[in-house]
Design a protein that fits this description.
Number of domains: 1
Strand content: 15-25%
Structural class: alpha+beta
Largest sheet: 9 strands, mixed
Number of strands: 15
Distance between the termini: 44 Å
CATH class: Mainly Beta
CATH architecture: Sandwich
Oligomer: single chain
Number of helices: 6
Strand order of the largest sheet: 1-4-5-6-15-8-13-3-2
Shape: globular
Order of helices and strands: EEHEHEHEHHEEEEEEEEEEH
Length: 298
């Protein structure tokens, strides 16, 4: 971890960026806690059988993928970004929970760490996080799961579901957020920096949903699959220790419950695609994943 910062209050250099969605209560039955994915033990255990498993189910968890020093270094880099130690980093890299809007400016640096919801586009600003994104083990597994020798980093985020205030991320498909042609192989890599448990908002996935194509999304509690359109029988939760990783297909339905605990649940999320894939337009994406012109309601 980075050295603990002084608790004096500071004013932000720029206007802070807040999550566009606010905390909403949601039906607890939308997430099931009965089925647990255990994952495989370490990179050395990864085989072609697991490639086949990933392609069949749309996800794969590997425990102890990164070492404790690698995770500690990544966390230190993340905290330095949040603390504003790099003056060249734009404020939009850090996004705060909407519920902190009225108290953020009077909060200490230490307190602000537990108000951040997301960091975006950080690998170009923090070498310790670039090390994770370019890690040879990660690149090798991603390439085998994608079926390419040249995986391209398409997006980098850190998802920090803050203790006590981290809101739910409703069920969705990541492809619905990306201006990429339908059919593009997309793989998400969700890396636990803290222990991700059922109680503090570990990932939930629905195996096999990646084979069922795109689903219309709606602006409700988030950009999400309609609650009434969910198959609630296929929910598998994926708890991870620090250093564990979840690989999942860009069309796999997934989501995370709110964090109402006093525990931090911080994670890195990276998305890769085969190199050379062209981008498409927002209009083309929305014609597939949006509600415009579709006879569907939520």
């Amino acid at each position: 971890m980075a050295t603990k910062q002084a608790t004096t209050t500071v004013a932000p250099a720029d206007e802070p960026v807040f999550d566009r969605y606010i905390w909403h209560e949601y039906p607890e039955y939308l997430f099931s806690f009965d089925n647990i994915a255990s994952g495989i033990e370490g990179y050395a255990s990864f085989t072609e059988d697991h490639v086949r498993y990933y392609r069949e189910t749309g996800f794969l968890a590997i425990n102890d993928f990164f070492t404790a020093p690698e995770i500690a270094s990544a966390l230190a880099g993340l905290m330095d970004l949040i603390d504003g130690k790099n003056p060249d980093v734009p404020s939009a890299v850090v996004q705060y929970e909407a519920s902190t809007r009225d108290c953020l400016s009077a909060s200490s640096l230490e307190a602000r760490r537990d108000m951040v919801r997301k960091l975006q586009n950080y690998v170009d600003h923090e070498p310790r996080l670039r090390v994770i994104a370019d890690h040879p083990r990660l690149r090798e597994v991603v390439g085998r799961l994608l079926g390419t020798t040249e995986p391209e980093l398409f997006q980098d985020q850190a998802l920090l579901k803050p203790r006590g205030i981290g809101r739910e991320k409703p069920w969705h498909q990541d492809h619905a957020f990306f201006n990429l042609p339908l059919g593009t192989p997309i793989i998400g890599c969700w890396i636990a920096l803290d222990e991700a448990r059922p109680e503090n908002g570990c990932m939930h996935v629905k195996p096999g949903t990646h084979k069922e194509g795109p689903v219309v999304h709606f602006e409700r509690r988030d950009w999400q699959i309609c609650d009434e359109h969910l198959d609630l029988t296929r929910d598998v939760m994926v708890p991870l220790k620090p250093g564990g990783i979840l690989f999942f297909n860009g069309l796999t339905h997934h989501g995370t419950p709110a964090n109402r605990t006093a525990e931090r649940r911080r994670a890195l999320q990276l998305h890769y695609i085969p190199a050379g894939i062209s981008r498409t337009s927002t209009e083309a994406r929305m014609s597939i994943f949006g509600t415009e012109g579709k006879d569907v309601t939520c």
